[in-house]
């Protein structure tokens, strides 16, 4: 679909003017904002408050189309290195590979003439969901009341949290799901799966919908002009698995996706993405050896010519109003590198 005519609302005009002034001040070292999304929701979900619903995603994409210069990520990286970025340069990315990217986000991107990079895992291309979504759906369906969290292999400190760890309303379920997710994230994978199985049993073994992209969806995304990037097979915390395991996660994921898209993968995003916590220089070297051109963290802020090739920062769009969303991007673009 061709891009619609630019809007000329007051906010978009303000953002264009502000972004142009920022660009003039740092013409030789213009910076790039790379936004990160995960799931797009049909409607707001109290247990997924950090995820963007479809209506919010549409106004965000409209504002990007009207107020910024949205570039494909490979092109933006090349121009950043060459010093030829346009003012107000922004890229869009999605992590994990949720099917909502194809079913909900893609029509909106096409409506505004935008493209994105999707960093996809490959463990659930045929069916199933990632471990964090299994936890969420189990907590959603837990019966009300107190639980012996320690018996499930979870920390007793969980009971010291909001409402004493008692399952009741949506607020308590969100708190419990968040605590379990943060704890389980750094567990050895076999232990994590045991805890999830026990939690699901307490919840009556709920069926979890197939939430991830399938092969046909990945092909459809690429045919629509989007880039596919690597994100490991099972989304492990690379620093918490053995080197051989980490390398296999990186290489097998790259190979599987290249078989689908029929072209080399150029870009990689670290699972969870915190330097020194979720990955370290061992994994940076693995990414280079696997043949990737660049890799991305979750450090927030903007990228520039000073950004390390395999540790390029990206930021998540937390703001819930257009003015705060736009001003955050301007603040990031105004950053100065080393």
Automatic annotation (TrEMBL):
**GO BP term (any one):** carbohydrate metabolic process
Sorted keywords for this record are:
Signal
Taxonomically, the superkingdom here is Bacteria
- On whether Nucleotide-binding is a keyword of this UniProt record, the answer is no
Keyword match Cell division? no
GO CC annotation, single: extracellular region
SUPFAM superfamilies reported in the protein's UniProt record: Glycoside hydrolase/deacetylase
The protein, known as: Polysaccharide deacetylase
Tell me which species this is from.
Answer: Herbaspirillum robiniae
């Amino acid at each position: 679909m061709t891009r619609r005519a630019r809007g000329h609302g007051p906010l978009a005009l303000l953002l264009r003017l502000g972004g142009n002034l920022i660009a003039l001040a740092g013409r030789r070292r213009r910076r790039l904002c790379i936004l990160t999304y995960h799931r797009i929701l049909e409607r707001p979900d109290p247990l997924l408050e950090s995820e963007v619903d479809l209506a919010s995603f549409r106004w965000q994409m409209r504002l990007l189309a009207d107020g910024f210069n949205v570039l494909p990520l490979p092109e933006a990286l090349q121009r950043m290195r060459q010093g030829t970025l346009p003012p107000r340069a922004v890229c869009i990315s999605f992590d994990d590979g949720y099917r909502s990217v194809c079913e909900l986000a893609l029509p909106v991107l096409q409506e505004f003439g935008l493209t994105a990079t999707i960093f996809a895992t490959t463990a659930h291309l045929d069916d199933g969901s990632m471990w964090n979504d299994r936890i969420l759906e189990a907590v959603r369906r837990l019966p009300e009341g107190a639980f012996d969290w320690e018996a499930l292999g979870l920390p007793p400190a969980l009971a010291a949290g909001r409402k004493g760890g008692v399952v009741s309303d949506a607020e308590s379920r969100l708190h419990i799901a968040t605590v379990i997710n943060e704890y389980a994230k750094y567990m050895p994978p076999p232990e994590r799966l045991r805890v999830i199985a026990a939690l699901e049993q307490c919840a009556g073994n709920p069926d979890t919908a197939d939430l991830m992209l399938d092969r046909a969806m990945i092909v459809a995304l690429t045919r629509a002009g989007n880039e596919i990037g690597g994100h490991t097979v099972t989304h492990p915390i690379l620093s918490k698995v053995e080197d051989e395991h980490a390398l296999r996660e990186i290489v097998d994921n790259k190979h599987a996706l290249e078989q689908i898209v029929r072209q080399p993968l150029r870009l990689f995003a670290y699972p969870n993405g915190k330097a020194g916590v979720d990955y370290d220089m061992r994994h940076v070297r693995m990414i280079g050896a696997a043949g990737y051109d660049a890799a991305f963290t979750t450090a927030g802020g903007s990228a520039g010519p000073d950004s390390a090739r395999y540790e390029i920062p990206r930021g998540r769009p937390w703001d819930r109003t257009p003015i705060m969303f736009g001003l955050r991007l301007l603040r990031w673009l105004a950053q100065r590198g080393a």
